[in-house]
Amino acid sequence: MTAPTTGTLGAPTTTAVRGGRRHRSRLRDLLGVVPFFVYVVIFLFVPTIVVVVGAFAGDDGRPTLDNISALADDYIVEAFVRSITLSAATAVLGAVLGAVIAYAVVTAGPDSLVRRLVTSACGVLAQFGGVTLAFAFIATIGFSGFVTVFLKDSLGIDIFSGGVWLFELPGLVLVYTYFQVPLMVIVFLPALDGIRPQWREATESLGGSTWYYWRRVAAPLLAPAFLGSTLLLFANAFSAYATAAALVSQGAPIVPLQIRSALTSEVLLGRENLGKAMALGMVLVVALVMWLYGLLQRRTARWLD
């Protein structure tokens, strides 16, 4: 027979004491993440619910599909096409340039000064957006920017001879690429770190060339991480608002600016729920992109772990 775990009637057992300690420890661990859950509920779940409910509600509060059907209007479809084009273009440019920089950083060594400087700079520049970034470009290559004035006065080059491109879609491509490149460096570095030098040495020992190594070994391993990072850049550009709002003062060429127009217009009133319907469309696009990103990340982890 098993010996009793208590020597005194009514005294708590050792097992019960240990169980109570583990329970209190788990409660303390959960208390540490309560602020995070509160933040997610207030700034993610509640706005999402407001958007979904508003997208299917009319001005009188009754359920309707008018807002959803209005998404097929030509100007809204064109805004979505321009937003997707802008996001795809800057994602590809940022991914290619960022991958090249990330590879150069990896070759410098894990503890090198170059890597520390580049990663620190990328961490700052990836968050350098909004009104500040728009002002920086206007002050640099705007109508009276110092680079614009220097090129025109010293070299006779007028960068705006073909039109005011900085404040249109081409200008947004340039500005968005500025913060896409450092973000790509940050998210792609771990994948490059996962490529082991022994794989290249094994390829060379078997007579494989550098081109063969990149084509048959490194490229297939890095492809899911590269594509996943590109999708992340797409979502980052697709949801950006402040930079475009500060740079584009006339018109609403992309969806975030169309939403602003629907919510704040003093000419066409009662379009708030149409803005919520457009926001719901953006949520669905970003959700699809992030789902694909998650699939690629799991495949990357399976190869490189």
UniProtKB/TrEMBL annotation:
Database matches in InterPro entries: MetI-like (IPR000515), MetI-like_sf (IPR035906)
Keywords per UniProt: Cell membrane, Membrane, Transmembrane, Transmembrane helix, Transport
Main location: membrane
Residues annotated as transmembrane: 30-57, 84-106, 118-151, 171-192, 213-235, 277-296
Domain of life (superkingdom): Bacteria
GO biological process entries: transmembrane transport
Membrane topology summary: Multi-pass membrane protein
Subcellular location as annotated: Cell membrane
Any one Gene Ontology cellular component term annotated for this protein: plasma membrane
Domain ABC transmembrane type-1 intervals: 80-293
UniProt name for this protein: Putative spermidine/putrescine transport system permease protein
Species of origin: Asanoa hainanensis
Taxonomic path: Bacteria, Bacillati, Actinomycetota, Actinomycetes, Micromonosporales
